Structure to design on (340 residues):
């Protein structure tokens, strides 16, 4: 399933998810809060996380349905599932609002960030609102088990942010730390988005584990492709300046691999740049990119992402062939081919 087939297939579900999210803002009394959370949430997101919840629930429901009861197309998701799925978009949106304040980012996806458009206080409070709304939905629309899954993933995200900051400060170039950060920042939330969908549909433990594995591998591959786009992407598509991660001194996988595999001279050059200022790193971006290319950092990262996507798809083998499974496989392939 290619991108041209996948995106129109997902469009109706994305529309329903966005309508459900808008409805959740209807009772907000502050017009400013409505503006800020709307800016934070409806700013070009792909809705991957809630879509994964919906598809995982559909896959589990269809897999466990007695033969002949109904076709997959006749399975109508309850409105409560859409409300539970939006939890993951609210958590993601909250983290972006807070991240932009922490990183002093002026733009995201080519659009002015909330704290730049309003102020830090408005952005932080809006992020807090989305986080609180997410946890309330998790505990009321879901149950204590859903709340525990989502709470654990949220704690992992925060832990990973601290770990990443420490890695930058200490120039920790180990792959072990890198993947710990990725699992916390991206894999945990995407894995729980899949698992919550299975749990909502009364899936069994093997199905929960399979979708958790799928989500974790998908999340890691997604972030590794992000690492590649930071160096090799098209700014007009990504909405981000090329080399932003390197300017900030972030230890992403292409750089980590180059620090291990580059010749001594090039390795020292990268080490010196990591000890320089962000402005100096930005000026040396082309030089760093050439060193990473020659050391095989980009090809190594691409191969790693491909291996993870293979593992994600393999985890789905316990499920029967159906449209939901084919769409999840299509999303996995899309992660490798995306350009923004």
């Amino acid at each position: 399933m290619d991108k041209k087939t996948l995106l129109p297939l997902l469009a109706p579900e994305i529309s329903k998810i966005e309508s459900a999210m808008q409805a959740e803002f209807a009772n907000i009394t502050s017009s400013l809060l409505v503006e800020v959370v709307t800016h934070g949430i409806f700013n070009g997101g792909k809705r991957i996380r809630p879509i994964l919840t919906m598809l995982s629930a559909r896959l589990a429901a269809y897999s466990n349905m007695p033969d002949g009861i109904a076709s997959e197309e006749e399975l109508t998701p309850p409105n409560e599932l859409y409300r539970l799925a939006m939890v993951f978009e609210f958590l993601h949106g909250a983290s972006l609002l807070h991240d932009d304040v922490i990183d002093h980012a002026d733009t995201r996806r080519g659009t002015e960030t909330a704290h730049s458009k309003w102020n830090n206080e408005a952005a932080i409070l809006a992020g807090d609102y989305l986080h609180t709304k997410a946890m309330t939905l998790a505990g009321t629309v879901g149950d204590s088990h859903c709340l525990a899954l989502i709470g654990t993933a949220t704690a992992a995200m925060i832990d990973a942010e601290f770990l990443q900051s420490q890695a930058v400060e200490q120039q920790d170039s180990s792959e072990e730390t890198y993947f710990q950060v990725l699992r916390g920042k991206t894999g945990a939330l995407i894995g729980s988005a899949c698992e919550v969908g299975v749990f909502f549909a009364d899936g069994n433990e093997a199905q929960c584990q399979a979708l958790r594995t799928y989500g974790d591998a998908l999340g890691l591959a997604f972030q590794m492709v992000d690492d590649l786009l930071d160096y090799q992407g098209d700014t007009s598509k990504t909405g981000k300046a090329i080399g932003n991660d390197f300017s900030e001194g972030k230890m992403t996988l292409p750089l980590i691999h180059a620090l291990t595999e580059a010749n001594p001279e090039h390795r020292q050059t990268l080490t010196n740049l990591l000890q320089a200022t962000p402005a100096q790193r930005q000026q040396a971006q082309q030089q760093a990119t050439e060193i990473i290319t020659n050391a095989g950092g980009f090809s190594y990262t691409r191969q790693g992402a491909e291996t993870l996507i293979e593992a994600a798809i393999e985890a789905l083998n316990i499920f029967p062939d159906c449209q939901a499974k084919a769409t999840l496989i299509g999303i996995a392939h899309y992660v490798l081919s995306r350009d923004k």
Remarks:
- Residues 150 and 246 are 31 Å apart (CA to CA).
